[in-house]
Amino acid sequence: MNANVSVDQQSLKQVTDYLRAIGGNLPKAQSRAINRTLTGVVTDTAREVGRVLNLAQKDIKEHITVPRKASVSRLSGEVLAKGRWIPLIKFRGTRGVKGGGVSVQVKKSKGPKILRHAFLARMKSGHLGVFMRRDPAAKYVPSSEIGAGKPIGQPASETYFTFPGAWPTEYRLPIYEPKSTDVVSVVKDQWSVIERKAAERLLKNLNQSISGMVKQKGYVIEAA
Which of 9, 147, 149, 213 has the smallest count of CB within 10 Å of its CB? Predict the structure, then answer.
């Protein structure tokens, strides 16, 4: 993906004057700008995911981290979206319904879905979740929304086992906690918006960082 950026002559002269003023401190200004941008990208990413998934911002941000920040010697950083399935209990409005079952709304663009064979339960650990009972002879097939999960040993048990879809014989247990779509898949769909906002943030933060250093040094940059 390519991006074209145009800079007028006055802006170019201003940047040139700024760089001359701060001299060897440019990497410091750049690293500061990058790190501010990383924090902003986390916010933008969570906001864009929140436009799609029916989740609170704090629950979305649990899946987005900054594993590496920039430094003067390494002018790059990283924002990471972790691809973990999300427990149904995390989605806002999840509740038990009259007559049995649990109502869950995963995506804002779709209405709530009632899982008639699901139930709410709290484990000994204090974890409240949506659980389902399965046919021990059945093969579990993940779907795009209500998908892969974690079977648990017994109600109120704290022992969890992951599984890829078909359960190994030793893990064919009757109760499991269904999960839904992961944050990564939504980030990929919204990436063009996130990337554009990141570029805008970096430009703004770099300008502020350089301007701050220029003022600290007492330089006055004359307008062209």
Answer: 9
Could you list the residue range(s) of the whole structural domain that residue 174 is in? Answer: 87-181
Tens-digit pLDDT profile for residues 15-67: 666 666 666 677 888 888 899 999 999 999 999 999 999 999 999 999 999 99
Examine residue 73 and state whether it is found in any structural domain, yes or no.
yes
Q: Please state the rounded mean pLDDT for residues 171-195.
A: 82
pLDDT band at 160 (very low <50, low <70, confident <90, very high): very low
What's the 3-state SS for the chain? Answer: CCCCCCCCHHHHHHHHHHHHHHHHHHHHHHHHHHHHHHHHHHHHHHHHHHHHECCCHHHHHCCEEEEECCCCCCCCCEEEECCCCEEHHHCCCCEECCCCCEEECCECCCCCEEECCEEEEECCCCCEEEEEECCCCCCCCCCCCEEEEEEECCCCCCCECCCCCCCCHHHCCCEEEEEECCHHHHHHHCHHHHHHHHHHHHHHHHHHHHHHHHHHCCCCCCCC
Same-domain pairing of 78 and 91: no
54-63, 70-79, 139-148: least confidently modelled range: 139-148
Q: 26 and 101: one domain?
A: no
Q: Is 91 in the same domain as 177? A: yes
- Whether residues 177 and 91 share a domain: the answer is yes
Provide the pLDDT for residue 155.
Answer: 39
